[in-house]
């Protein structure tokens, strides 16, 4: 599979090739902050198949967390592109940054321990209070 995408203003562009490792929605509080309150929907793609084709992202890692993710976003418009989790062999691409977000099919809901009453989990997908075993 080859995915292409970028930020809202067009300053950042990327390509991601390979087999998706996970397609999910995350309800954790950190993702709620990044998404503006909704669960974060993402496709995890192998790191070796990912590259920026235009521009360079700005990144942020919280220094007060034990194993924080690094979030990459456009320095111009602020669009969130991806997250990198320590030890995880994939980039966590934000579905909203894809040129064709219709390729996303949620396979699970994670960190539902933080799920808000207004969040929707599609019927029939596995849900986990934290990460699956």
Automatic annotation (TrEMBL):
Q: Which UniProt keywords apply?
A: Lyase, Metal-binding, Zinc
**InterPro entries hit by this protein:** CENP-V/GFA, Mss4-like_sf
Q: Which Pfam families match?
A: GFA
- Is the keyword Ubl conjugation in the record? no
> What residue stretches are annotated with the CENP-V/GFA domain?
3-119
Please give the PANTHER family that the UniProt record associates with this protein. CENP-V_GFA DOMAIN-CONTAINING PROTEIN-RELATED, GFA DOMAIN-CONTAINING PROTEIN
Return the similarity comment. Answer: Belongs to the Gfa family.
Q: What is the name listed in the Swiss-Prot or TrEMBL entry for this protein?
A: GFA family protein
Lineage, highest ranks first: Bacteria, Pseudomonadati, Pseudomonadota, Alphaproteobacteria, Caulobacterales
């Amino acid at each position: 599979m080859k995915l292409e995408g970028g930020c809202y203003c067009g300053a950042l562009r990327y390509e991601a090739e390979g087999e998706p490792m996970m397609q999910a929605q995350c309800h954790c509080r950190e993702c709620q902050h990044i998404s503006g309150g909704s669960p974060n929907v993402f496709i995890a793609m192998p790191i070796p198949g990912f590259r920026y084709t235009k521009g360079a992202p700005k990144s942020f890692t919280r220094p007060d967390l034990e194993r924080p993710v690094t979030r990459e976003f456009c320095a111009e418009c602020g669009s969130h592109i991806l997250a990198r989790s320590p030890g995880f062999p994939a980039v966590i691409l934000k579905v909203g940054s894809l040129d064709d977000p219709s390729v996303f099919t949620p396979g699970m809901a994670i960190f539902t321990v933080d799920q808000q009453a207004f969040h929707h989990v599609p019927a029939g997908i596995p849900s986990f209070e934290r990460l699956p075993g």
